[in-house]
From TrEMBL:
It comes from the Eukaryota. InterPro entries: ERMP1-like_C (IPR053973). This is Endoplasmic reticulum metallopeptidase 1. It holds the Pfam family ERMP1_C. Residues 20-236 form the Endoplasmic reticulum metallopeptidase 1-like C-terminal domain.
Length: 238
């Protein structure tokens, strides 16, 4: 019995309410925006980002939605904060998302301190769930921030990852980072010191839906359980 189950002889999913075995899938309709050093838009793309949550991948979904195939499978983009995508995902091109309350991101100030560090202050206005990913370059190091006390911890990818959530009618999110740049003749003045990505997630209300997303969800079989929402990914360089 163990060998038969391991070889996939038995179909692993069921939509029977008395004994449910759902296939869990995340589906995001996302627009990614990449900005230059001066903040202007450099490039963008949009699509339906589909991520599976178990060992079978999308093999059982493909017969129902043939567009989800290996030709749209994405790979980790190590040079981007948060890899640009979730680690295991399929990316189906789709029109740009347009939430009624789009993310607002500002660099408020950049100050060179008397002890040789650079302090950068930011302001963000966005939905109730946001992820901030910070990656340092050119030997720069993060020495302080306004996001809490204690040791600053890198994740496995060498990034600082902050999850920010708020309730209704929240004020703008203001924070600052302080960096120690590398003093070296080998570092080009044109080289980025940091890249900062912020992902805005819209889970509820009209901003949490789109026509392409709703149309795709209707095509999943009854034994699949897709969790869906709208996202925007914004990458900035400094």
């Amino acid at each position: 019995m163990f060998v038969l189950v391991s070889c996939g002889v038995f179909f692993p999913y069921s939509g029977d309410l008395s004994s449910p075995r759902p296939k869990r899938v995340f589906v995001q309709h996302i627009t990614r925006s990449f900005h230059t050093r001066n903040g202007s838009l450099q490039s963008s793309d949009s699509g339906l980002c589909i991520s599976d949550m178990d060992y079978t991948g999308m093999q059982h979904i493909k017969p129902h939605i043939p567009q989800i195939n290996d030709s749209i499978y994405t790979y980790c983009q190590d040079y981007l904060p948060y890899y640009g995508f979730p680690r295991k995902s399929w990316y189906l091109p789709a029109p740009e998302v347009s939430p009624k309350a789009p993310l607002e991101f500002k660099l408020l100030s950049r100050q060179e301190t008397e002890w040789g560090t650079i302090k950068m202050s930011f302001e963000v206005k966005g939905p109730s769930h946001m992820f901030l990913e910070l990656h340092t370059h050119a030997g720069a190091s993060l020495v302080s921030w306004s996001l809490g006390e204690g040791m600053l911890q890198l994740n496995r990818s060498g990034e600082y990852f902050i999850f920010y959530s708020h309730g209704l009618d929240a004020p703008a999110w203001n924070f600052w980072f302080e960096f120690q740049p590398l003093k070296s003749s080998y570092v080009s003045p044109d080289e980025d010191m940091i890249t900062l990505a912020i992902t805005a997630h819209y889970f509820s209300g009209s901003d949490g839906h789109s026509e392409p997303l709703d149309s795709l969800l209707k095509r999943f079989p009854d034994w699949a359980f897709p969790s869906s929402w709208i996202s925007t990914y914004h990458l900035y360089r400094y």
